[in-house]
Design goal:
The protein is built from 9 helices and 8 strands. By secondary structure, it is of the alpha/beta class.
Length: about 280
Amino acid sequence: MARYHLHLLSDSTGETLEMIAKAALAQFDDSDVIRHFWPMVRSQQHLERIMGEIAGNPGLVFYTLVNNETRGKLEERCQSLGLPAIAVLDGVTDALEDLLGQEAAGRPGRQHRLDEAYFARVDAIQYTISHDDGVGWEDWENADIVLAGVSRTSKTPTSIYLANRGYKVANIPIVVVSPPPPALFDLRRPLVVGLTTAPERLIQVRRNRLLSLSQSPDTDYVDNDKVSDELKYARRMFADNSWPVIDVTRRSIEETAAAVINLLNERKAAGELGQTGSKPI
C-alpha cells in the first residue's frame, strides 16, 4: 500500500484544521496517510523550518493561515516543490464575507479568545468533572443536562464531550440494588436523558473492561439475565419519568452528544418547562 503525507499548518492551535482533515480522511478506506501537524505557525522563520520537513516528506498541504505574508510564502514554496497547498477555510470565509458585507478580521486564533463563552466552557468542564458518576447530587439543578444509565453506557465520556461544548453535565449510574437519590426525580431545569444499549453489546463492553482490569469475566456484572434485568429496570425508570432515551449501541460519543444537544435545543425551541417524551432515538 502506498504511503502518503498530509501536512497541516495552522497559525493557532490547529484544532479546527485537524478536525477537518480527520473528517475528510474518514471517507477513505484502507488509506495509509501520515499526518504532520504544525500549529502556531506565525513567523517566516518558523515556516522556513517547517518547509524543510515538508520537502523531505512531500505531500498534500492543508493550511489555515490568516497572515497574508506567511500565506504567500507558503504557497510560493509549495509551488516551487510542486506540492498542492489548500486553504481549507477560504471558501467558507469568502461566503461569509459576501453574506455579511464585511471583510474577515484576519486575526490568528480569534475563536480561542478569552471571552465570556470561553470562561463558561471552563466552568462547564469543572462542573462536569465534579459531578461524575452520581457525585454532587445536591446541586444537579444547576446542570444543563443529566445523563442516566446503567454502567458502561458511555455516560462519562459523553458528559466530558458535552462539557467541552459548554454544557454543564451531571451523570448517574442506574443500579438495581441502589436507587438514585430522590433529587433526580424532582429536577426541573436540567434535561434528564436516559442512555441505553443492547444487552449483548453491553456484556461485550463489560467483559473487555473486566479483562483490562485483570478481573474475572464471570460475575453478575456480565451475566445475561442480570444485564437484561438492569436494562429493563433503567428503561422502566426512564418511561415512568418521561425522560427521553438514546440508544447508544451503534453510536459514537460524538453522535450521542449530538443527539443530546438536539433534544435540548428542541426543548428550548418549544419553550417547555419539563422533560420531553420518552421515545428512544
